[in-house]
């Protein structure tokens, strides 16, 4: 069960890490 939790956390973290630059770019375009 602990392994599943770590695996799920790592997956969500990598997903957020991939989406973060795109989110910042969208916010930057809105601010300009």
Describe the structure in your own words.
The protein contains 1 helix and no strands. It starts with a helix and ends with a helix. The protein has one helix at residues 2-31. It is mostly helical.
How does the overall form come out from the CA principal axes? Answer: rod-shaped
Beta fraction? under 5%
Query: How many E-type strands?
Result: 0
Distance between the termini: 46 Å
One letter per element, helices H and strands E, the order comes to: H
- What is the helix content? over 70%
Largest sheet: none
Q: Could you tell me the radius of gyration in angstroms?
A: 14 Å
Number of helices: 1
What do the pLDDT scores average to?
86
Structural class: mainly alpha
Identify low-pLDDT runs.
Answer: none
Task: List key phrases describing it.
rod-shaped; mainly alpha; 32 residues
Kindly summarize this structure in a few lines.
The chain is an all-alpha fold. It is 94% helix and 0% strand.
Topology of this protein?
Layout: H1 2-31
């Amino acid at each position: 069960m602990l392994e599943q939790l770590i695996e799920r956390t790592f997956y969500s973290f990598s997903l957020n890490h991939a989406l973060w630059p795109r989110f910042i770019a969208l916010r930057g375009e809105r601010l300009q």
